[in-house]
Design brief:
Elements lengths: L8 E7 L6 H9 L6 E7 L6 H11 L3 E5 L6 H11 L4 E4 L5 E2 L3 H12 L3 E9 L5 E6 L4 E2 L1 H6 L9 E3 L16 H11 L4 E12 L9 H15 L4 H19 L1
Parallel strand pairs: 1-2, 1-4, 2-3, 6-10
Antiparallel strand pairs: 4-9, 5-10, 6-7, 6-9, 8-10
Helix pairs in contact: 7-8
């Protein structure tokens, strides 16, 4: 039963041809011990059966809403549409193939309220395309600010939550092909906010060979683009932070 004294959490999920995984993702949200949430799924013009699955879930649970882009527009525009429709005090994100532990929202909301925290994130585990554990955990850090995040992009998108009572709700994703989430945290932390970590595995990130982020060399190039072209750190400062980024990326994955 929903306790109306609990703040509403708006969960934003972009989807594209997600028929293989989206039901498992949604079920992990339905099973949350924290009931006062709305799930806003924005489908980016899928050509598989994703919409049929979303329609079925939305008919069964009024907390689930889905929108559809008329044409494939990319993750940034898709997530921004979710932000435009979010009603909650807290904004959470989960990708359409990831999974939450059942106490994720409850523990994270309580942690943020009790400590007046603007942005939080958690540790997470890695799973494969069959939902089998890869026996690898990405551990959160106690806290991270702008300069720290440039060296260590530790915030997992599907673990993150923002309190809009502290962080202005006018934030948006920059329309770039990938690493929109990385740049979002850069821009929010640059405003003086600090993100705080919960060192507990509350989410599972699915490693897929076909994903855009699977190519680590290309991923690194995009991070350099953020530092040098978008953030305009200059050559030396970009190289300094990028070297730390590479070190920490290797550390997280080994």
């Amino acid at each position: 039963m929903i306790n109306k004294t609990q703040p509403l959490v708006s969960i934003i999920t972009p989807s594209y041809n997600s028929e293989e995984f989206i039901a498992e993702t949604i079920n992990s949200i339905i099973c949350q011990t924290y009931p006062n949430w709305e799930l806003i799924i924005i489908d980016d013009a899928s050509i598989d059966k994703t919409i049929d699955i979303l329609h079925e879930f939305a008919n069964k649970d009024s907390r689930i809403k889905y929108l559809r882009n008329e044409k494939n527009s990319g993750a940034a525009i898709t997530r921004n549409k979710g932000l435009d429709n979010a009603q909650g005090r807290f904004i959470a994100f989960i990708d359409s193939d990831d999974i939450w532990s059942k106490s994720k929202l409850e523990k994270q909301v309580n942690f943020m309220i009790d400590n007046n925290i603007p942005i939080s994130f958690t540790s997470y585990s890695l799973i494969n395309e069959k939902s089998v554990s890869l026996n690898k955990t990405i551990r959160s850090v106690p806290s991270i600010d702008y300069n720290g995040y440039l060296k260590n992009t530790i915030i997992g998108m599907s673990t993150a939550m923002i309190d809009t009572n502290i962080v202005s709700k006018d934030f948006r994703f920059v329309n770039i092909r990938t690493r929109q989430d990385t740049y979002l945290w850069i821009t929010l932390l640059k405003k003086g906010h600090t993100a705080f970590g919960i060192d507990e595995i509350l989410a599972s990130y699915r490693v897929r060979k076909s994903s855009i982020s699977a190519n680590k060399f290309k991923a690194a190039k995009r991070v350099w683009y953020l530092y040098y072209n978008l953030e305009k750190l200059g050559l030396l400062k970009s190289a300094y932070n990028f070297s730390y980024y590479i070190f920490n990326a290797l550390k997280k994955r080994t």
